[in-house]
Amino acid sequence: MLKKYYKAGLIEAGCDEAGRGCLAGPVVAAAVIWNNKIDGTELNDSKKISKNKRNELRAYIEQNALAWSVAFVDNNTIDEINILNASFLAMHNALNSLQIVPEIILVDGNRFTPYKKIPHACIIKGDAKYISIAAASILAKTHRDAFMEKIHLEFPQYNWIKNKGYPTKDHREGIKKNGACIYHRQSFTLLTSQLQFEF
User: Fold this and answer.
1) How far apart are CA 25 and CA 29, in angstroms?
2) Strand 27-33 to strand 104-108: parallel, antiparallel, or no bridges (unpaired)?
3) Which ranges of the chain would DSSP assign to H, the alpha helix?
């Protein structure tokens, strides 16, 4: 069972991102201030939940959180500032849009750029430990997946509806046959050397 809070008595915002390891599309971050009076027992790391359940929980989180926000940083910005900085920027933008100012920020992972003067705690596998981070994990993942499914209609040759931009075999084969498109991250290795020379 996930923990409701990191430090009792503080307004806590959980933060997480999705899409960091992808070859295409944005990195998406979410920030959630959970209402601890509401049951959060079904919330968990988004990777441990089925797609249908994630979408159900997205609606549940958006209806019941005290505050939530989602922010996108596109592939062009990722290429300009690198994926780590883009992930931090997305989290900061999500925090900027919260309707409630948190007193502490809980971040999934081991690195974060300080946000304003608000203290933060980096928690490895935090999305499987704290409800607020799990909620942020689900929102980031579902909002990003929906975006990738939408742009799949523009570029079906990469099969983003299935791989969501991750470096799967079918995605790399699509790049090999069709080249990169406007949503690809040019600073990433889009093709392995093995695929590049298999002509």
Assistant:
1) 13
2) unpaired
3) 51-64, 75-81, 83-96, 131-152, 160-163, 169-178, 193-196
Judged by average pLDDT, the poorest of 4-8, 148-152, 160-164 is 4-8
Rounded CA separation 74/5 (Å):
32
Q: How, if at all, do strands 12-18 and 27-33 pair?
A: antiparallel
Q: pTM to 2 decimals?
A: 0.94
Structure-token match 């990738």, residue found: 148
Token reading at 112: 């974060």
Alpha-carbon distance of 115 to 69, in angstroms, equals 15
Q: What are phi and psi of 138, to 5 degrees?
A: -65, -45
Distance CA 57, CA 63 (A): 10
The predicted pLDDT at position 193 comes to: 60
